[in-house]
Design a protein that fits this description.
With 154 residues, the chain is of the alpha/beta class. The chain has a single domain, classed as Mannitol-specific EII, Chain A. It has 6 helices and 6 strands. Strands 1, 2, 3, 4, 5 and 6 form a 6-stranded mixed β-sheet that branches. α2 packs across α3. The model has no long low-confidence stretch (mean pLDDT 91).
Length: 154
């Protein structure tokens, strides 16, 4: 699963000043609405339902909220790099400042899991995370991600 294919410049929020978990999920849902043509309210409601099952914060300042969407034919990603960390109910009690929203086709559970595994693997790269936290533009964030993927493939 190629993460570069999931992301575009229109799917990133960089140096975003979020006031709460709901605020950043709302902003990411609005980005998603423009890309996949599904009401941001539907996306946000699904994300909130998922968060109620348990926090999608995975530790070290990273969260991977995710949901299924019937209208998708392939996974789509949306990334927020926050200007400061937020409370996200993380197991390690660390504030979250990197949020990767994953939306995947609801008719293919294995593709959803593969996409989630790919995102999780990528975000375990400490060097990538450090570089992302220093990004101030969507172009620089995409370049950092692309370079990391290229380096890992080599």
């Amino acid at each position: 699963m190629n993460i570069n294919e999931m992301l575009s410049e229109r799917s990133l929020l960089v140096d975003f000043n979020a006031s709460s978990k709901k605020h950043v999920l709302d902003a990411l849902s609005k980005l998603a609405e423009k890309e996949i043509n599904v009401s941001y309210r539907v996306i946000l409601d699904n994300l909130i339902k998922r968060e109620k099952l348990g926090s999608t914060a995975v530790g070290k300042g990273i969260a991977i909220p995710h949901a299924s969407e019937t209208s998708l034919d392939k996974p789509k990603g949306f990334l927020a790099i926050l200007s400061h960390g937020l409370e996200f109910n993380a197991n390690d009690d660390q504030p979250v400042d990197i949020i990767f929203l994953l939306l995947a086709p609801s008719n293919n559970g294995s593709e959803h899991l593969q996409a989630l595994a790919s995102v999780s693997r990528l975000l375990r790269n400490n060097e990538l995370i450090t570089k992302l936290r220093g990004c101030k533009t969507t172009q620089s964030a995409l370049a950092v991600i692309s370079q990391t993927i290229q380096d890992e493939a080599a």
